[in-house]
Design a protein that fits this description.
The protein has 744 residues and is α/β, with parallel strands linked by helices. The chain has four domains: 5-163 and 294-329, Rossmann fold, CATH 3.40.50; 167-289, Rossmann fold; 393-532 and 676-714, 3-Layer(aba) Sandwich (Rossmann fold); 538-657, Rossmann fold.
Amino acid sequence: MTARRIGVLTSGGDASGMNATLRAIVRTALDRGLDVYGISEGFRGLIDGGDRIRPLGWNDVGGIIQRGGTIIGSARSDRFRQPAGRSKAARNLVMCGIDTLIIIGGDGSLTGAELFRQEWPDLLADLVGRGEVDAELAARHPRLTIVGLVGSIDNDAFGTDMTIGADTALHRITEAIDAISSTASSHRRTFIVEVMGRQCGYLPLMGAIATGADAVLIPECPPAGDDWEAQLVAGLKAGRDAGRRDAIVVLAEGATDAGGAPITSARLRVLLEEGLGESVRVTVLGHVQRGGAPSAFDRNLGTLMGHAAVGTVLDPGASEESQVIGIRGNRVVRIPLTECVAHTQEINDLLTSRQYSRALEMRGSSFNDAFRTLHTLLRALPHPPQPGQPRVRLGILHAGAPAPGMNTAVRAAVRLTLDQGHLVYGIRRGFPGLAQDDLQEMDWMSVNGWAPTGGAELGTDRQEPSGPDFYAIARTIEKRGIEGLLIIGGWEAYAGAHRLFEERKNFPAFNIPLVCLPATIDNNLPGTELSIGADTALNNIVGVVDKIKQSAVAERRCFVVEVMGRRCGYLALMSGMATGAERVYLHEEGVTLRSLVDDLQMLVHGFQHGKRLGLMIRNEEANAIYNTAFMCALFEEEGGGLFDVRQSILGHLQQGGDPSPFDRIQATRLARLSVERLIDQAERHHTGAEFIGFVAGNVEFHSFEDYSRMVDGANRRPRQQWWLDLRRINDALAQPAPGMRRAS
């Protein structure tokens, strides 16, 4: 029996992560007994047929996960919009025995595909009637199945938290603005940075939050009032007066004023030069936002979506209604294609008809919350306290190892608290600093420039409070009148907060609200699926491993890469998935000599048959005996001279560098919700002790009463770890091609 055949194409503008998606589709399909045909140049290739529709094998998609763009090419096709073009496309597909299409593209591509699906029976009937297709062949393919995956840097699709390519585009934007900010600050200069976002403000909005920009203009919310130009200039002047040396204005390419007139970078430059009386520079990022190696997030997003797309194809009900694969709360979901396209188009129509408030509402709560938060962060100075307003005193400290995004969280927490008229103390050096009364009152400009910086400006310490520390901490809290604590950090932060919670019976001063915000690269904390800093560490690992792979291929080498995480394997598994590692070793699963011997035999078999690269990723505490050095020695000794073996222990570079856009945005979001919680509890004289986190896409608070039952204290990780379910997907895609697998 002939295997079912599916076609895959990329259409419209390219997006980083498409290749990772293609790799997952091809390998998952082949592993499940399907044949895969790659269609070059999108719908144009579908119409042209011939060698533009060709089989794809396992190794055809090897070594592409780290490449930007799409190896099968993408294009827009006016011919596909015409019935004659769709007729040719149908003929080419049925002649190849293909009646299933997986399409990676934007809403325009998906709309065209759905029309194609609906017309399919009539198109085949017409082709049979004209004698271009055999009736028996047409009868074997009565329906066309469509599965869509949204590849778009704009992140403008309904029903999915992120689209393929959006995170990478944000990386390009933040990298550019960070670089521009340094020169702008050196010269006390204003820059306009124009980013993509014709009908969606996601990139400029999130880019502004991530970089600490001074103003942003997006399509969903044109500047209000006839005097908006004067207000913009006044706001920038106030920032300079407050001490800012630079001014960054982020402009969406599709921004308009309230009357619908485009706000171009040229128009804005003239306005600011006249209003500020200084030279203004313009940087149009353009297509640089599309390019470059995909981020770790986009690689893994594409992998999960591509894997799920094949599963959807195999669903018996798949042909009844076209589906789009999306992601919500770290979980893959299916959305009816017509619903996805209709809602996306509705927002575009609302913008065209200038119904901006409704369009903004339809972007969703996260988008709107980010927009409101940004408006506070953009202020030159906070709103003054109301006359007679009770002023809550909050303390902020770090505990545990430094994590990228800590400074971002502190900046947001300080400014959002001050803007509500309350007071904030920054506590230096964690719990020891709190015990020693090492505090400073924070003002608006004390956190200026902190949004994009790594490390921990307040300092941090791994020491947990114990014994006499409790008395000293209680004295500081009473002396300073602290009415709420925000503790930002990792395992030691949570353990220390839990100790304070347990000591409330002995120290009444601890009966104040406290919130722990998760910040650790290890991603090993209870009550959250993602911690601040883990995404940055993952990107650091992926960047290094990409370079290691280039070296390994040139020399016929196997690399064993050791990554951090202690006894939590999150970084190991997710970096393995993002880099195409053949094996990932986790403490959660253990390592045995038998498994190492099996892996060695797999390596030998592969290199004997033309393999040029071996990549193993090992969690640093996967096994105390079978450590990285042991594994390298074993593989080298028993490899028979077929390949060299090298180890790479990445160490603390995983903790360093500026935080990723994801970590900056989520740190800001969690900080806002945390200070709102603390202020509310303090004003109502409540004494909740909680930790905040992301659970299935939602932000939740958990009581420290539940802390002990939620953690595996011996191994310093949560009892429940959602990402372990992804192991099977990684293993399926990383194995050798079906014909190259070693017989058991």
